[in-house]
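Form 7-S
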Amino acid sequence: MPVSAAARARIVFDSERGCIALSSVSYGLFYPLWAHDATDTDLLTRVTGDVGIDHLTIPVVTGAHTAMHFCPLVQSNLFATEGGWHYPPHREHYRATDAKVRVARWSGSRNMLERVCRAAEHASVPTVFRVNLRAIPLVTDHERHLRMQNAWGDDLAFGGLCPLNPEVQELLHSVMQDLQPYGPDGFELVDWCCDQPILSGVDRPGTWHPDLELALETCFCPACRQVAVMGGVDADAAARSARVHAGRMAAQERPADHSEPSVPDDDILWEYRQVRQHELVNWLERCAESTASDRLYLLHDSGHLPHFDAPGWQPLVRVGGTLLDGTSAELLAELEEEVIGALSLWSWQPQFKESSDLVRTVSEAVELGVQFFDFEGFECAPEEAVQWLRQAVRYARRG
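Output:
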């Protein structure tokens, strides 16, 4: 029986035993299609040869993105896209949804995804597709009925598409079906969680008080209300409760302990959130069962992890900001506490001060049980980043 692409990617040579063995840890590179377009395969050749990565994580559907490249292989330093589908979609897969599929302008009619997948297959490197469907301005601006709404009935600031809306779920299902012919080894869904805005790093109303933020950002769109009513919860009463609690907390001082947000002591608001979360988990489980992929991940920023387990899906933590001056210890402590098996890290400064910081963080994360890594920002970094990443991966494998 031939060895699968995923298995081939985990084959390593054990120098002490003089034989090959399967590694349970997969070290991957976040690899944008636009970077491949700008380097004409040179970047992919460099990472598969010099670093020896185990998988490529390719953003195929995204929101707006801007990057400044310092990689010597990239021909243009500045790249910007309004987001959308970064490959030519097959329209027949989207007949069940009224939402318009919008292709990112930079890609035009070219199929850069097919080109990258062929190169990855030639290098025996499996691919994982990252889908950030909720954050596409070209969709959210034109399909306003699919957006999250607050308890006052207004569009939620930076809310994006609601993951409980049946049309949004059907759109995601169509995307995943559309991508199956490319043979992905897995999928990453970005911010696929109830009541979570798509731009967690942007200053939004109420962010100075965690409980106020939660009350303001609980979604009360028609789809969420319908789910609640079908679950036996009075959605109108829950909305009134959210408005009352928001008004009270707006007059309070900022908590000194920067505590995590918690649902106020209100049974109906708690039930409203719980019944919707339960429905989302059930849908994610059905989605996983219908997807012929080995790896399925829910990608969220560190500090914004959803408080639920979805069968078939693993939590993937994306670490933002910097880990300078020893704060990587805090990250590792969080990994140990949450028992997280997948991690997305920056591969260069400013997240790491020097290569030894990256090496130590990756090795200790493996010891804590992390078995899947995405290294981001590589296409933007200078030549020295190759050495940093190579050291981190090789040292962790030896360990």
